């Protein structure tokens, strides 16, 4: 082993040079604790040993303090003076392990490792890179001030805009209320006129139906009156077993007679009195006869078809209205019936068309009322839509105004921007405060790597890291998430992406917004610990 | 998914579709049961009874080295040839083949290290019932009974082992297919031999069973052009209740009887998410079984590389302890007996009966046949940091830096398949690993190393040099129609080099030359995965049995394929250094003899407590059959371990031979510092413990290389007469001097360790607390506890100055831990060499024995003809169980004497001798007065 002591030439004010002796691996600050030729007390006070056991390559102290310059103690540390650069401690286990750790090469004094003193080089390089960083920081910091100004300006603008919008909202709300009144006022006469119209039509239809019924009765009478004697007899009725009164499967004479009101036969007038009992069940006679003009069985076949037509599928001609309807339902169910036009009787009317003819068009006056009501509805809808837009606007503004864009709102400029980075295989897209995504370069669908979660930097620098969470799930894994590390730069760019762990992405992102005011540059080796010094002149 | 190419995803999805039905367990339906493997079903249908085989005594020929006899099957008149050899070292070899097979049957090459040297056999007596042969000394005899055929190996009046005693010898002779034309040549041969004519006539009557000439499993069809060809034989082991070995199975150390389920299966398979505690085949196969009782240890080595099933039954298996006691009391003590039956799909019967009598004799007998554990580079006994995958060079750099930052030693960082250019092995991803030499140099600067994966499936791509060369040289395995066999694996469509060809292996080895393997450097080593071989779209995720290797079918060579891959790779690493440097190659598939080529691991385990537990018996079983360099993925490959499980796994893995953390691509990162400062400290502490014991591990591996003794041992190996040790597999010995009882239960508050040896002391290595042997000791544990004990009577050299990597510790001084036994003596060894070259073969090493007796500790050279110098010295001697001396004197080789300082701790009886300072290679003695 070479000497146990380092001989240091120490420079005081560049005038005197003094030799300072201390055990190897001891920082100058602790030199007084290692007094030559006096028993050494372990720094933890655990025991006292003769001084020649300091740095004798055997560990006597639990805390390793007796072997500052050797690898003998498991938890010791070795002090590299690193003159010309920054002094540092390394674990004792790195002393004489054949690997150069201290830039002044003092850790490898007995291993045969060919270590060069690289401290000055390191210092030069560090200075250069620090200068470069400082340059960037300086420039970035200026940019940041602008960003802050702009952001504050933007913030003020938004606040005043918010006030404006909030005011306009009041007007709009009044307008909506007014238009609602107008609409309701217009809908009342509309409804009355339409009801009138409908009622008239219903009455007309009743007359038509009655006439049809009478005609049918006459036909049936003729059909039943097989012998054409002008009477329907019990015998004639019996050929129509469907008229079986108690549905026991046999239509007896007694039953037929009862049906005829207790008599044996009825003339047309008498038949009219029992018609209502017969007409539901009666089926046109044995297949020989041609069907009556109105055929109930046929109607039965038709009905499901017309049901199909009207219910599961909304009418083709007004899909927009249907959609709007749904939207409205989401918003406010109460409004639903008020302005729905035309009323839901429409399909019913249509069905009637087949049987009883088409409802005549509204008369001119009614139509006028309808048109007026429709106009009022449209105007009301329009105003309400505007109100919703204003609400959205207010929400967005409030969100943006209250969003955590950093202590000086310096990150506000990233809001609603997106930044891309193209790698070998993918295009990565970072939309700050919104989401991160990844898309294969050569086609394929986009994958969500996470939506804005929170600022996630360490406590003292919370705005240095963004966290995006709950992206697309991974097979047998978590949902994708992305950590975005922000560093100071003059430009706002994504500089790298990686996936250190499956489905956990890491993005490096530079922005002036994270630049700190650079401290004034020093020309001397930086850290001013008590024992920094030059070992040569 | 950035680290994952789209193609990769497809492959994975396909693989999953094949292998995984949405649960975290093996899909057993993908792998055959005995019933689904036609030969196993046929053979297993045979029940014990009188054997149809009879010895034709008149055919006996006895030369100096062997005895031959013909056997005839009375049912079909087919004749077999029995060869019997007496091999040096108390081994009997029995070979049975067809006397005149239609075509040659496969005999496994390249597994035996040489043609085993024989010893003379002599006939003791002979009559019409059989022959009695002498097996040399020890009054051992072989009795060949003629009718029916049976072999008994006797020592004195005791039967050690019987063959065909249950009449289960079966040999499916090669035959012509009935529905195809008989070859005229074969007919001629039949005519020439009247015996064969009769046999042919009889043969006609034999029924053709389903699966004899063709067999399908799931969607895969096996064309079986050679028809049925299975062989089977039973062995009876009187007096034996404990049998071990036949890895690889996720099973306890002591093998179970198989009557109620499937036999143990030996067929190298890539089993996705394997299940524990069942006899299913796994990645490797070593057809070696050990049988042990208090009097004797024997072994059976069934040298056959085809699919093999092993049935075990026992006449005591069903009995309760009470039942056994009743037997004893009533005197109806039937001798316990274990019966074993081996069934293989093709090849011949070639079995080595290793007759012990001690466990170490069996190890040495087996080593004399298949060789010993290769002596690994010292650094490979350090800690290995692996993950599928370290993403790029920056990732490697930062993980490497993380180990320095957190002051955890490691020696190797590993790269899985994603480091390649599109799964083209021997290449690097041009973006992620653009400058591999810079990366390797960075590691070398810290005296660390790297392992990169090289799998044996080769991407079919005309722009890929390796593929083009293999194809143009005709080195690929062929399919049954003669074209290159193609299968689906990581790269997509892939070819499989025919590693059974020596010329192919030589070419493969040459690919590791520094000028061939671009980006490689001397600190880059190799990992062979998927070498069962794994074929994602093949039957049972492996190669079709009718694929062709020259004149043999894949069926014949299957279990050997993985051994050849590792053999060729290890050769490559040796050759690239001009034969100077020791290789390090990890393999997943293995066979008997694989110990000669490197390390194995237990494959794709899972982050579950039971998987941690099973790592112990799995490695113990491998050690018993020669493969000492074994480990399990620390932390578990699939799934994500809780911090507690991870810490416990590190604590276990640090005391197992191959110590590597590994993790699946889909799991969160797992570097030791990602689990909070407490867990980091626990992991750091145990990795450091590993490094302090490296001198001991290294010496044990040297011993394994010399003797074939396992490094990690079951207790019964050292305490063969203590039945309490026979089934212990929750603790183990490292060498004979360290006993480890890892904590493998969640939330454990304590473990009960069995400390063997009636007259032994065991010292807790952490507290130096002394315990008596032959007791079950309850040890309360905390998260930092790793119950490890040093045997009283041993001396273990350690290096307590733990550094960044093992290479950094090369010149560091030793601390000797002298643990005294009740007789106040102790012994130990120290082996030192350069740690990485083959120069130890040129006697460049130091091998010393330390012994402590009569209060004198001395160092004696036990390899006086060897020469090596070391800078390492002895910095400290710790004597456990000592009494306080008044003075301590060191006497060096030159006769100089000096007084040594010391401290004595009376509460623990620990004597610490301060800085004796002599060189570790020197002669010296230290006297305590």
Question: What is the secondary structure topology, with strand pairs?
Answer:
The complex is a heterodimer of chains A (537) and B (929).
Chain A (H helix, E strand, L loop, with lengths): L4 E8 L3 E8 L16 E2 L6 E2 L27 E4 L7 E4 L27 H106 L7 E2 H5 L14 H7 L5 E2 L1 H11 L17 H15 L8 H13 L4 H4 L6 H11 L7 H39 L16 E4 L3 E6 L3 E6 L6 E9 L9 E5 L11 E8 L4 E9 L2 E8 L26
Helix pairs in contact in A: 1-9
Chain B lengths: L5 H14 L18 H8 L7 E10 L3 E8 L5 E9 L3 E8 L23 E6 L2 E5 L5 E6 L4 E6 L2 E6 L6 E2 L12 H9 L1 H12 L9 E3 L2 E3 L8 E8 L3 E4 L18 E3 L21 E5 L4 E6 L5 E7 L6 H10 L6 E8 L4 E6 L4 H12 L12 E3 L7 H13 L6 E4 L20 H10 L3 E5 L4 E2 L5 H8 L13 E4 L2 E4 L6 H9 L13 E5 L19 E2 L2 E2 H4 L3 H16 L8 E3 L11 E3 L7 H16 L5 E2 L11 H11 L5 E3 L14 H17 L1 H14 L4 E2 L1 H4 L13 E3 L3 E3 L9 E6 L5 E4 L5 E3 L2 E6 L7 E4 L2 E5 L15 E6 L6 E7 L13 E8 L2 E6 L12 E7 L7 E5 L4 E9 L4 E5 L9 E5 L1
Can you summarize this structure?
With 537 residues, chain A is α+β, with helices and mostly antiparallel strands. Chain A contains nine helices and 16 strands.
Walk me through this protein's architecture:
- The complex is a heterodimer of chains A (537) and B (929).
- Chain A is an alpha+beta fold and 537 residues long.
- Among the domains of chain A are: 100 residues, no CATH class; 103 residues, Distorted Sandwich (Cation-dependent Mannose-6-phosphate Receptor, Chain A).
- Chain A is built from nine helices and 16 strands.
- In chain A, the strands form five sheets. Chain A has an eight-stranded mixed sheet with strand order 9-10-11-12-13-14-16-15.
- In chain A, strand 5 and strand 6 form a beta hairpin.
- The radius of gyration of chain A is 49 Å and the shape is elongated.
- The C terminus of chain A is likely disordered.
- With 929 residues, chain B is an alpha+beta fold.
- The relative contact order of chain B is 0.09.
- The N terminus of chain B is likely disordered.
- In chain B, helix 3 packs across helix 4.
- Chain B is built from 17 helices and 51 strands.
- In chain B, strands 5, 6, 7, 8, 9, 10, 13, 15, 18 and 19 form a ten-stranded antiparallel sheet that branches. In chain B, strands 42-43-47-50-49-48-51-46-45-44 form a ten-stranded mixed sheet.
- The N and C termini of chain B lie far apart (70 Å).
- Chain B is 20% helix and 27% strand.
- Chain B folds into three domains: 283 residues, glycosyl hydrolase (family 31) (Immunoglobulin-like), CATH 2.60.40; 340 residues, TIM Barrel (Alpha-Beta Barrel); 116 residues, Immunoglobulin-like (Sandwich).
- Chain A: GO terms for molecular function: calcium ion binding.
- Chain A: This is Glucosidase 2 subunit beta.
- Chain A: Keywords: Calcium, Coiled coil, Disulfide bond, Endoplasmic reticulum, Metal-binding, Signal.
- Chain B: It holds the Pfam family Glyco_hydro_31_2nd.
- Chain B: InterPro entries: Gal_mutarotase_sf_dom, GH, Glyco_hydro_31_C, Glyco_hydro_31_N_dom, Glyco_hydro_31_TIM, Glyco_hydro_b.
